[in-house]
Write a structure and sequence with these properties.
The strands form two sheets. A six-stranded mixed sheet has the order 4-5-6-7-8-9, with helices on both faces. The chain has a three-stranded antiparallel sheet with strand order 1-2-3, covered by helices on one side. The protein is α+β, with helices and mostly antiparallel strands. The chain contains three helices and nine strands, in the order βββαβββαβββα.
Length: 152
């Protein structure tokens, strides 16, 4: 797998039926090790170990219904009252982050109405803070800590 622009993570990888699987600490099971999953697992470990996000406040592959259609958010982060506060969308390192990717996560946010969205392909990470009162959004240089997100 590709080297990412994220800290190394101690991932548990096994081979089953000739295919690699990685243990997802949030879903508590082994899942297919795809390039996108490689990014997701490293990013989740980064949020927990480097940015102070409690594992119990993060969910992977969270189902939502949007206009009568079931969709899955790659990762959703929850606040103190179990309300969604952040959506993270992952792409494989070979996928360029384009407006289309932001459009996808924005559609998910129609349903969840979070203040924070992140898009990452493991090499580039974009974090955006949405201010609903002013109707504006602002990109940040760094991924904020969990405590910073709760205070904003």
């Amino acid at each position: 797998m590709d080297t990412l622009n994220l800290p190394q993570a101690a991932l548990k990888i096994i081979s089953k039926d000739g295919k690699q699987q990685v243990f997802d600490i949030l879903r508590r099971k082994y899942v297919a090790l795809t390039p996108e999953e490689w990014v997701r697992q490293h990013f989740v470990h980064y949020l927990i170990s480097a940015r102070g996000f409690p594992a119990e406040c993060i969910g992977n592959e969270v189902s939502i219904t949007l206009n009568g259609t079931r969709k899955r958010c790659d990762t959703v982060v929850y606040g103190r009252n179990a309300e969604p506060i952040m959506i993270v969308e992952y792409k494989s390192p070979q996928v360029e982050i384009t407006q289309q990717v932001f459009d996808q996560i924005s559609r998910y946010n129609i349903r969840l109405k979070v203040k924070w969205i992140i898009v990452s392909n493991g090499l580039q990470h974009y974090c955006c803070r949405i201010d609903y009162e002013s109707g504006t959004s602002r990109f940040l240089k760094d991924i904020p800590s969990y405590s910073d997100i709760l205070e904003a």
